[in-house]
Structures are given as structure tokens and as C-alpha cells.
Amino acid sequence: MSHLISQDPEIHAAIEREVHRQNYGLELIASENFVSRSVMQAQGSVFTNKYAEGLPGRRYYGGCEFTDVAEDLARSRAKELFQCDWVNVQPHSGASANAAVYLSCLKPGDTFLGLDLAHGGHLTHGSPVNFSGIWFQATYYGVNEDGRIDMDRVRDKAKSINPKLISIGASAYSRDFDYEAFRAIADEIGALLWMDMAHPAGLIAAGLLNDPLPHAHIVTTTTHKTLRGPRGGMVLIGNDFENPFGKVAPKSGRVRNMSELLDSAVFPGMQGGPLVHVIAAKAVAFKEALQPEFVEYARQVQKNAAVMAQSFLSRGYDVVSGGTDNHLVLVDLRSKNITGRDAERALQAAHITVNKNMVPFDDKSPFVTSGIRLGTAAVTTRGFEEADIEEVVMLIDRVLNAPTNESTQHKVKNEVYALCENHPLYDFVIA
Ligand code: DSN
User: Fold this and answer.
1) What DSSP string describes 9-76?
2) How many CB atoms lie within 10 A of CB 12?
3) Among 97, 161, 269, 397, which is 20 to 30 Å from 282 by CA?
4) Does the beta carbon of 54 sit less than 6 angstroms from any atom of ligand 1?
5) Residues 329-387: pLDDT tens digits?
6) b/e per residue, 401-412, with b = 16+ CB within 10 A?
7) Helix, strand and coil percent figures for the chain, each rounded to 5
8) Contact 294/36 with Cβ under 8 angstroms?
9) For residues 122 and 170, is the Cβ–Cβ distance under 8 A?
10) What is the model's pTM?
11) Distance of CA 404 to the CA centre of its chain
């Protein structure tokens, strides 16, 4: 970083401090992970200089011959990873990928059905403060008292509402989804089915969770959570099909495939130039995810989450749904008399990073919340195994039992430091 240190010491210092924070803190935010240096190198490459509107072989700018190589590799690797017919790797984020789905499938005012944000859903699945809830008629299904989605209730809701689109996917739901049952409901009412697999994508790629690609009409994801790539999104179709809206190609009059509508929705519908450096980094990450080591990694993520849930339960915490199938654990703190906000703050003081999160049927606001959400993807990347996870939960428990005790936070911080030293992350020194 010799250029940066001399040209912009303030940004260099912020990066240096962030490297230290990542190296010596426990990263338990369920949506985060640590990319390889290869991914970082591709993302930090000269591809950042390139404009490349369009798709490989069909660009609006010259000089895209090497961009095409990178994007074709990203696309073919993603298709191999998820065994699907089609993918667009250009969305800048999961939210952009989701916006492309809305643009392709709905008109303003149309009705869709998604998982309630307060029950684990996502802002872009119809929250009233997001475009998806502002421009469309968003309706919701939720979880039962046991914290699980009840497919009979989803079916009843879908039949009474008759949405054009049903979305699956969540940011705080620790159980697997029954895609076949969702598809049967969608078929019964003539709706399109969309799965946002942003959180569990890595576990799905590794074959450890049910596969949405054969069942959902459209799948979106981010690339940076359990999939462990650069920050970004993509849209996929398992089995491509003629769009059901009768949209035809301008000259031939041929009915366009759904994939064509989605390509157009990403660009020029939603975005300008793709981020070629990020697409190159996505290609690197997909190559990594195709290796047997990634399956082992994903398996350990899932084992660690199961151990984490069990450790919380055995220490007397309520875990929403009683456990987890994926990488994520949602802890309901109401029986512990501490809010999610206070828990997040106390843990942060001990260098343990989690996020406050609503739990189903929460009586507190999203700024306060009754729960915390934790994930094992990032710590597993740095080599944490089951015994380490038990220690992590023990440390969390110590902090939460005395949330205002600075001396406890200080002692736990030192133990966190030691745990991190045993599992080095990025061993490079920023000079
Ligand atoms: N912000 C992400 C998460 O934390 O789940 C979702 O977009």
C-alpha cells in the first residue's frame, strides 16, 4: 500500500484500523464473510477502469475483449456451481438483483406475497420503506409461534390474495425452505415463484440445503455472504422459459425468454455500467466455490451454527425455531431481560460483532429489538470449529449476564484477542 500511504494517509489509516478490527474481533454478522486474497486482488484490479454496458459479445463500448473473458468465466462458473440454464452476474448488489425481478415481473401497483420483514424477511421483499413496498402492493406471510413457516398458511394466504409473484428468502430465518410446496402453491394460483437465496447460497452451492433452482422460476442472490465472494448480486434461472407476459422480440416477433427480460431489466432497466472488477472477483470466488474444499468449509459453517444454537439453548437462551438448518442463529433475549440493542452494544465493547434483530412477534421497535442475529460463515473461514464456537457462546453469555460491567467486557475482549490470534485471518502487514 505504499502509494496509498503517501497519497492518502487518512484513508490508509482507516484501512489499517479496519484490518486490525477484522483480525482481532469476532465477526458474527450473519451476512458477512472474509474473501480470499485472490478475490481481493481481482477486485482491486484495473478492471475498475472499464465501462462495459451490454453483455459479452454485445457491448456498447469498445475495448471489452478482456472484460468479456472475465464475465464469460463468471457466468459459466456460476452456471456450473448452481446447475442452471442462465445467469446474469452484473447486479451490483442483492437489492439490484431483486429490483430486476420486480421490473421484469410486476407493474406498479401489482400484488406480490413475501415473508414479513418482522418475521425474518428482507427490506426488498416488500417493506413499506423500500421501493418494493412503495411501488407494489406488498402482502406478507409469517412464521408460526414455533418460528417456522407453515405452508398451509402460506397457501391460504396466497389463495385469498392471488398475488402475481411469490417470494421466498429471508435475512433472519434459520430453517430450510420447502421449494416444492411453494411451487405447487404458485402453480395453483398462476403466480411466478422467486427465491432470494442471498443468505444460504454457499450452503446451497455445496448441496447442504434444498435446491431452489429446479423449483423457483427465478432465483436471486448476493455473492458475499455464505458464498464468500466480493460484494455483489446475481440473477439465475434453473430452467429458462418463455415469459408469461407475451413480450416479444422487436424484429422477429418471437416471444422472449424470461432470461432475456431479466437481462434487459438489469441493463438498461436498473443499472448503468457493470462493475467489471467485481465481476472478475465473482469469477474467482465461483472457481473457489467449485473446489471440494469449499464443500468442507460449508459443512463446517453448518456444523458450527448447529453447535452455536445448541450452546445457547443449554445456557438457557431462547433460540427462534429451536435451532438452525443453515449458518444463522436468531436468539430471542426476552427471557434474559436485555434488548437486542443493549446486547449488541455490550458485545461490541468486547469486540464481538453481532446485530440486533427483530424476533417474530417482537414488541420492540427495529431500533431496539428483542433479539440478536449471529452467523458462523465468517469465523468458519478463519478456522473456527465446534469447540471454538462453544467458547464464543460462553464469552457472549458472560457479557450478556453483566451487560454494563466494563471490567467483564475488558476481560472478554482479551480472551477474544487470544482466540483470534489462534486463528489468524489476514496475516499481511499493511506497511
Ligand atoms: N443486509 C443484509 C443482511 O444483513 O442480511 C441483507 O441485505
Assistant:
1) HHHHHHHHHHHHHHHHSEE--TT-----HHHHHHHTSGGGG----EETTEESSS--HHHHHHHHHHHH
2) 18
3) 269
4) no
5) 999 999 999 999 999 999 999 999 999 999 999 999 999 999 999 999 999 999 999 99
6) eebeeeebbeeb
7) 45, 15, 40
8) no
9) yes
10) 0.97
11) 32
Provide the angle, in degrees to the nearest 10, between the axes of the packed helices 340-349 and 386-401.
110
pLDDT of residue 431: 31
Q: Note the pLDDT of residue 427.
A: 60
- Which pLDDT does position 430 carry in this prediction? 38
Q: Please tell me if the CB atom of residue 121 comes closer than 6 angstroms to any atom of ligand 1.
A: no
Half-sphere exposure of 421 (CA within 13 A, CB side): 6
Q: What is the pLDDT of residue 2?
A: 87
Which residue is closest in CA terms to ligand 1's atom 2?
31
* Regions of the chain where pLDDT drops below 70: 427-431
Instruction: Indicate the SS3 state at residue 129.
Output: coil
CB 300 less than 6 A from any atom of ligand 1: no
Yes or no: say if 296 and 203 are a contact pair by the CB < 8 Å rule: no
pLDDT at position 294 is: 98
Strand, coil or helix: what is 139? Answer: strand
